[in-house]
Amino acid sequence: MMNILELRNLCKSYKNGDERLEIIRDMNFSLEAGKRMCITGASGCGKSTLLNIIGSLDTCDSGEIIVDGQDMTKFDSAQLCSYRNHTIGFIFQFHYLLRELTALENVMIPALVAGVARKEAQAKAEELLNSVNMEHRSHYYPSKLSGGERQRIAVARALVNDPVLLLADEPTGNLDEYNSEIVENLLFQIAEERNKSLILVTHDRQIASHGDARVKLEKGGASFLWVRNFLFFMLSELSSAEIQAGCSDISGGLS
Ligand SMILES: Nc1ncnc2c1ncn2[C@@H]1O[C@H](COP(=O)(O)OP(=O)(O)O)[C@@H](O)[C@H]1O
Ligand SMILES: [Mg+2]
Fold first, then answer.
1. Does ligand 1 have an atom closer than 6 angstroms to the CB of 45?
2. What is the pLDDT of residues 136-189, one digit of tens each?
3. CA–CA distance, 95 with 36 (Å, rounded to integer)
4. Is 83 within the bounds of a domain?
5. Ligand 1 site, residue 47, Cβ cutoff 6 A
6. Residue 143: inside a domain, yes or no?
7. Which of 80, 152, 208, 216 has its CA 20 to 30 A from that of 202?
């Protein structure tokens, strides 16, 4: 099976005055095409930093990020624009819908930016609104929608250019339990139906256990991986060295 994503020796630190804050140290992992990975970990351990780097919203210090066969850390700015628009679908904790536009128009925007004809963009957006069960809200403005509805629109928008990799950073962080479940289940279902690879950052252990792979990021520790049907580690009882020896898929840690 082909890997949609490979991280090789990824390092990231932030400069804070004279201090250097090491966030990601020598991280390695891969994700097979069509698989769904869940990332959990305490607040501040670097989950958003990791997703932002993969999604090219932030840069790493060193390392390689191979997405769909190409190292995106080597892309020039034109290639990065195309990468953000076509290759990646990003869903954030906050919906970032444009309030002057209807739900339908919001979903159409990335397609129009990509140069898709208006009619075609609209047809695609309508089909997606249908699949997130929001077709009855397509002419609503974001201010008239509930939090859960806005996130479903954001999911549709992330999919409109048919990205190969969906990145969702705590997309239900602002939602109640009932709506969180709807949105997260929807993400899993859509990723499966459309054969999209998904990386989901979530606090919900129940949801995280539904993925094909699970990574727990820890400050000062290793990254742990759980892959359904392949590998099962009693995570808390293994040292990082044992995990690396037992699983070539993932190594490295966060400081
Ligand atoms: N631009 C920045 N400059 C300095 N430190 C940052 C910056 N962005 C994030 N950090 C720090 O990096 C760490 C990881 O942040 P983040 O990736 O947002 O964590 P998480 O998403 O897991 O809660 C935090 O300690 C945070 O304060
Ligand atoms: Mg975060």
1. yes
2. 999 999 999 999 999 999 999 999 999 999 999 999 999 999 999 999 999 999
3. 21
4. yes
5. yes
6. no
7. 80
